[in-house]
Design a protein that fits this description.
Layout lengths: L17 H6 L26 H5 L64 H4 L3 H4 L3 E2 L2 E4 L5 E17 L2 E8 L7 E5 L3 E8 L8 E2 L23 E7 L4 E6 L5 H6 L3 E7 L2 H4 L17 E10 L9 E4 L5 H4 L2 E3 L5 E7 L6 E6 L4 E5 L8 E4 L1 E5 L3 E6 L7 E6 L4 H4 L3 E6 L1
Parallel strand pairs: 1-5, 3-6, 5-10, 11-14, 13-21
Antiparallel strand pairs: 2-3, 3-4, 6-8, 7-9, 9-10, 11-12, 14-19, 15-18, 15-20, 16-17, 16-19, 20-21
Bound molecules: copper (II) ion.
The site of copper (II) ion has 6 residues, from loops.
Amino acid sequence: MAPERHDSAPDPSPPHNTAIATAEPPRKQRPRKIGRRHLVTRAATGLATLGALASGAAAVVAATRPVAAQGATAGPQHNTTGGHLGNHQGLIPPPQGALTNAIVAHDHGVQMTVGDVDTAAMGYDPTTYLTTFDYGTASTLPDGRTLRDYRIIAADKEIEIAPGIFFPAWTYNGQVPGPTIRCNEGDRLRINFTNNGSHPHTIHFHGIHSSFMDGVTGIGRGNINPGESFTYEFDARPFGCHLYHCHSTPLKRHIHKGLYGAFIINPDPAKHGNAAKERHPDHAESRRWQEFVMIMNAFDTTFDGANEVYAVNTVAFHYMKHPIRVERDRPVRVYLINMTEFDPINSFHLHANFFDYYDHGTTLEPTLRTVDTIMQCQAQRGILEFSFAGFEPGLYMFHAHQSEFPELGWMSAFEVV
Ligand SMILES: [Cu+2]
């Protein structure tokens, strides 16, 4: 059981930079209650693992003392794009770039995790995930249509969702979210699925297909038991921003453990006209766009049916520490999906800008225009389109607007250059 920190408790694990930490002026140290649990804000010393947490600890990580960063300045260091991001205390380690100098917190404000997860060890990098699309292995059917074969393997795997916080996930292809499956409208898809996990699983696609291929417990092929394989086969329709996930029971546990991914079907310009070319990589019109896949997710690290860590694409605060680079003269398209379990909704708010929104991505005309906040229930999704053309270069935040979620990890930034 991990010890919970109290005012009088000695620090069982000193911060990396003891010299600087002790040079700080005396401050009253007390755990900050952030939402349901205390969130981690300390050096990445690997001080807590899920096993310890699951054994009864009340806090995700029971330490809140800010760790001074070497070289951090004592005075304000305001960025030109966001004064409230000024560096007053140096709560995080030395930043990686000039612009990221601005990403620090007031001592009375938003906190974030210190250090970074080991993306190499995890075999998954949220930055790479944003722009990685799996088009499968393509071949041509006798009728001239494109056939795409995909391989998806379910397996149990421990993943790092915040520095030192490990979660025993169930994964598709060893990552959470699973790979982004992408194709063109009308393609024939074959999803070769093998369950190497410890529980029965399925793949349920949001799309149009037969009952037998629906990938739910008790209907059609139903559960794929450990060691079994099955090939889901159907045509890619309708175009849009969709998802896939396990539909074994209990559903909330199978989803929350990490079995989900994005499923994008590009619209066919032959059916829908020139506007479809903007979203279709085979056409030059699409190439000016900067496309990113974002799945809003969360993790219940104590298995009590409530989340402790929130994120886009799994790792808390990843895009605050590694802002998403955007060229301001090229438009941005975000494929946004909510896979958060246990909370009824999640949301996306963009700072200093507005976007057009395409609910489910199934239309080529926006379903909402000129909004800066959108909410989604679980499995709802849509496409956001916006531009920073003419904007001042700098950092532009985006985050959930349920204020608890950003404080627990769902806080991000674009770096507009
Ligand atoms: Cu499952």
